[in-house]
Amino acid sequence: MTPGVVRAIAVSVFRESVRDKVLYNLVFFAVLLIAVSYLLSQLTAGQDIKVIKDLGLAAMSLFGLFIAVFIGIGLVSKEVEKKSIYSLLAKPIRRQEFVVGKYLGLLLTLFVNLAIMAIAYYAVLGAVAWVDGAWFRPHWEAPAVDPALLKAIAMIFLQLAIVVAIALFFSTFSSPMLAAALTFGLYVVGHFNADLKNFETVVDSKPVAYVARALYYLLPNLAPLDVKSEVVHAVPVPATYLLLNTAYAVVYISVLVSAATFIFARRDFK
Amino acid sequence: MYAIRTEGLTKDFSIGFWRPRAYRALHGLNLEVTVGETFGFLGPNGAGKTTTIKLLMQLIYPTSGHAEILDRPVGDVSVKRRIGYLPESPYFYDYLTAEELLDYYATLFGYDRGERRRRVSALLDQVGIAGERRLPLRKFSKGMVQRVGIAQALINDPEVVFFDEPMSGLDPLGRREVRNLILSLRDRGCTVFFSSHVLSDAEALCNRVAVLAHGKLVANGRISDLQAFDIRGWELIVSGLASESLEKHRPRVQRVTPLGEQRYSLELPLTPGPEQLLRELTDSGAQVVSLNPIRETLEDFFVKKIAEQESERWSGAGEPGQQS
Amino acid sequence: MTPRQQTARFVTALAVMLAVAVALQVVRDRAFAFSTVDRQVLYVSNAEVMRRVALSYDALLADVYWIRALQHYGGERQKAGSERHYDLLYPLLDLATTLDPRFTVGYRFGAIFLAEPQPGGAGRPDQAIALLEKGVAYNPNKWDYYHDIGFIYYWNLHNYEKAADWFARGGNLPGAPFWLKSYAAVMLTRGGDRQASRVMWTQIGQNEESEWLRKMAQMRLAQLDALDQIDVLKRIVDAFAARTGHRAQSWEQLARAGAVRGIPVDPSGAPYTLDPDTNAIGVATNSDLWPLPTEPAAAPELSGNAPPVPR
Q: Taking CA atoms, which of A94, B125, B162, C189 is between 20 and 30 Å from C108?
C-alpha cells in the first residue's frame, strides 16, 4: 500500500468536505454554545457551567455523528454512482488504497472539526468562568476549563471513528439510504449494548443469555467509550481505561475497514 | 509483444433479482492489438464495446478468459502507470477546477510538485482549455469536460490509451480536434484503442478495426481487407443542370433531390458505374460538385453479418469463424 | 492462490481480529467495573428532563430503565450482605415510572423492594411511598397503589393509623376488592398481628400479574408459619428449662429428653437454630426464610383493653 496514494485520496476527501461547506456546522456550534451560555447566565446561579459542559459535549457528539454518517455513507457509493470511479481506478492505485484513503480522509475531516469545536468550547467555558467570578467556583465539581474534558472529546472521536467505519462498510455494497439506516441503527444498538451483558440476571433461559453476551461482544460497543458524565462530575478516568478503549476501537475498525476493502475489491462496476 | 491481447474473454451479467438469469454480454473475445497501432473497436450501441474496455481496465471481472496489456495481466498496477483511459461520457469531481483535477490525478502517479505543474500546464494547453484552468468543472460544457477527460488520460505520457466513444456529444469542431489529437498520438508511437459506433471516425484514423455485435466479434482486420462496408451506390451532386437534361437522364437515376437553382443530388445505382453518366452530364454543360460512394452503414453490415451467421448455424455449419 | 483460498484466509484473519477485540473488551470490563447504569443515572438524574429528551420513545426507555432496575437489584443481591446498597434502585424506578406513568409493575416492585429492610431490599420505605404516591397522582383510581402504600405503613413502618387511612381510601374506589376496606377496620381494631399479616400476604399472593410478587408472598407466608412454629418450640424449650433448671444446649438433647421428635426444621426444610445461652430460636442463616421479618406488633392500646380509636 503506497502511502502517497492513500494520502492523496484522503486529502481529496477532506477538500471535498470543505468545499461542500460541511465545516459551516462549526459556526452553528459556536453560536449555539455562546447563545446558551449567555441565556443560562441570566437564569441559574453558578450551575450554568455544568450545563454548558454537558451541552458542548453532546453537541460535539451529535454534530460529529451527522457528519460521520452522512458523509460516510457516500464515501464510496457517491463515486460509484457518479462514475468518477472509472477514471480513478484506471490510475495506478489499488482498490484497497482507495477504501483506506477514503476512510482516513473522513477521519481527518472529523478530527479538524472536533479540534476547532474543542477550541471554541474551551473559549466559551473560560469566558463563563471569568464572568461567573469567584463566588461560584468552589461549588463546581470540576474546574470550568478542565483538561479532563479532552478525555471525553478523545473518546467521542473514537466513537465517531467506529461509526465512520460502519458507514464505510455498508457503503461498499448497499444504497445510501439503507447504509444510513443500518449505520444509525448500529449506533443506537451500540449505546444500549452494555445492557445485553447483564441479561442473565433478568432472563431465565441460559441460551438467550449466551446469545445476548455474544452480541454484546461482537456488536460495536460504544457505551464504554462515553465518559462524558464522568468527566463532567469530576469522576476520575484512568489512562489504562482510555488505552484499552483505544486498542479495542483500533482493532474493531480494522475489522470493518478490512471487510470493506475485501467487498470493494471484488465488485463489478457496471 | 502485443499492446493488448484478449483470449476467450467472456462476461456474463446476472439479470433479475428474484431468479437471476445470466445475460452474456461478451462471448469469448479474441483480440490482438500491436504496439503503435491505432485500433478502432466498432459496433452498434449495446454491442459490448464498453464492457470490453471495462474488462481491460478491470472495472469489472471476466466470467472466463483473460486479457493482457503490454504482456502483463490486466489490473496489474505497474501497467496502469503506462496506460490512459477516457471513459464514455465522463464525470469528474465538479467541485474541483480543471487544474486541480489534473493535479490530483498526477499525484496518484507519484510525480513531485514541479513535475506535476509542468505536465498539467502542458496538457491544458494541448487540449485547449488553458484559459479555463481555474474554473470549477461544474461550469464546464460537455465538450470542455471531454477535453479535460482526454487531458487526464494523457497525464502520464501513456504508451497505450483507451478512449471509449471519444467523439460522443461533441460538435463538429470538437470532433475534428479529437481526430487530430488521435493522429498526433499515433505519430508519437502511442497505441490508441478507441471504440465508436460511427464508421467515418474509424475510416479516417485506424489501421485496423474490429467489429462487435451482440457481444460477438463479427469482423477483425484492416479496413481495406474487410469485404464489409460494401458500396451500394453513388451520390452525384451537380450544378448547372438544365431540366431537359435532367429529364433525359432520369431513368438511370434512382433518386433526385433538388438542392437549389439547377443544383441536384442524384442517387445512382452501383452498376453500371457512374463514369458514363458523368461524362454525358458534363458534356451537356453541367458541373460536377462531388461524387461520393454511398456505403452500406455499419448497421446494415451487422444485420447482414448476423443474418449470415444465423443461417450458417441453422444449416449445421457449426460455430462460425470470426474472420468474415 | 485460488479465490476461494484467498477468501478463506481473509475470513480467518477477520475472525482472529474480532477475537482480539473481544479479548480487549473482556480485559477492560474486568479491570474497570463498568456499568451503564451508574453513568446513566449520574448523567440524567432528573426524570422530567429525561422525559423530554426521550421524545416519543419514552415507553421504550421506560422498559430499558426497568430492565436496568432489575439488573441492579439482581447484581446487588449477588454481593455479600453487608455490601448491598441498592442505591440506584429508586432513581431507576423513578425514571422508569416517570417515562411511563402507567408502569404498574415498576411501582409495585419498588413498593416491595424499596421498603424491604436490608439486606433483602433498599430499606427505604420513604422512597417506596414517594414512588407510589407518584403512581397515585397519575392513576387516582388504581386501588393497588393505595393498598401498597397502606401495606408499607403496616408492615414496614408499623404506623397503623396511616395504614388504615390508605386502606380505607383505596377500599372506597370503584372496582376495589371487598377485603380492602376490612383491612382498614383490622388496622384500627387489632393493629398488627400475625393473622392479619397472613391474610394480607395471602391476598398479595393471589396477584396474577407478577410471578415474583407471588413468590415473595409465598415466602412471607412460610416465614409467618415459621414464626408460629418458633412460638411453639419456644414454649417447649422454656418448659424444658423450667423442668430441668438449666437451658437446653441443643435439639439433640431435647430430642433425647423426649421434648421434641427429631430436629425441628422450618417450612423450607432447614433446621432451626437454638442458642445454648439464651435459648433463642431462629432460622438458620442459610435457610431460604432467613432473615425473619420484624413483625408489626399488636398495638398495645389496641390489644382489646382500650376503646377503638374513632375514624
A: C189
The nearest CA of chain C is from the CA of A56 a distance in Å of 14
**Band of the pLDDT at B124, cuts 50, 70, 90?**
very high
Q: Tell me the chain C residues in contact with residue A240 when contact means C-beta distances shorter than 8 Å.
A: 31-32
Q: Minimal Cα–Cα distance from B318 to chain A, Å?
A: 33
Q: Where are the domains of chain B?
A: 2-222, 231-295
A79 → chain B, closest CA residue = B93
Cβ distance of A258 and C17 shorter than 8 Å: yes
Alpha carbon distances (Å) from A135 to A53, A132, B307: 19, 7, 97
Residue of A nearest to C20 (CA): A251
What is the distance between the alpha carbons of residues B165 and B194, in angstroms, rounded to a whole number? 7
Q: Which of A19-28, A246-255, B301-310 has the highest mean pLDDT?
A: A246-255
Q: Which residue has the cell 471481472?
A: B61
Helix locations, chain C, DSSP H: 3-31, 36-43, 47-53, 58-77, 89-99, 104-115, 125-138, 143-155, 160-171, 178-190, 194-205, 211-244, 251-256
Please count the residue pairs, one from chain A and one from chain C, whose beta carbons lie less than 8 angstroms apart.
79
Retrieve residue B149's grid coordinates. Answer: 477527460
Crossing angle of helices C58-77 and C89-99, rounded to 10°: 160
Task: Give the three cell numbers for residue C32.
Answer: 474497570
**Residues of chain B neighbouring A270 (CB-CB closer than 8 A):** 13, 60
Contact A87 B85 (CB under 8 A): yes
| Domain presence at residue A215 | yes
Dist. CA C225–CA C247, nearest whole Å: 25
CATH assignment of B231-295, among 2.60.120, 3.30.70, 3.90.1150, 2.60.450: 3.30.70
Nearest to C21 among A198, A255, A259 (CB): A255
Find the radius of gyration of the CA atoms of chain A. 21
Partner residue facing A83 (CB), from B61, B91, B107: B91
3-state secondary structure of B108: helix
Would an 8 Å CB–CB cutoff place C49 in contact with chain A? no
Residue B160: name the closest of B185, B124, B196 by CA: B185
What is the DSSP secondary-structure string of B109-174?
HT--HHHHHHHHHHHHHHTT-GGGTTSBGGG--HHHHHHHHHHHHTTT--SEEEEESTTTT--HHH
- pTM score of the predicted model: 0.74
What number of other Cβ atoms are within 10 A of residue C133's Cβ? Answer: 12
Question: Locate cell 422498559: which residue?
Answer: C63
Query: C53 is written with which cell numbers?
Result: 429528551
pLDDT tens profile A50-60? 778 888 888 89
Report residue B186 as a C-alpha cell: 499515433
Question: What's the gap in Å between the CA of A83 and the closest CA on chain C?
Answer: 27
In sign, the C-alpha dihedral spanning C48, C54, C56, C59 is negative
Kindly list the domain boundaries of chain C, sorted by start residue: 37-139
Tell whether A86 is within 8 A of chain B (Cβ). Answer: yes
The label of the residue with cell 514541479 reads: B114
d(CA B195, CA B187): 19
Q: What is the CATH number of domain B2-222?
A: 3.40.50.300
User: Could you tell me if residue A270 is inside a domain?
Assistant: no
Question: Residue C16: what are its φ and ψ, rounded to 5°?
Answer: -60, -45
CB C271 within 8 A of CB C263: yes
For an interface test with A, which of B91, B159, B164 has the most A Cβ atoms less than 10 Å from its Cβ?
A: B91
Burial tier of C161 (Cβ tally within 10 Å: 0-12, 13-18, 19+): middle
What ipTM score was computed for the predicted complex, to two decimals?
A: 0.86
Which residues of chain A have a CB within 8 Å of the CB of B105? 87-88, 91
Q: What is the number of structural domains in chain A?
A: 1
Q: How far apart are CA C103 and CA C99, in angstroms?
A: 9
Q: State which residues of chain C have pLDDT below 50.
A: 301-311
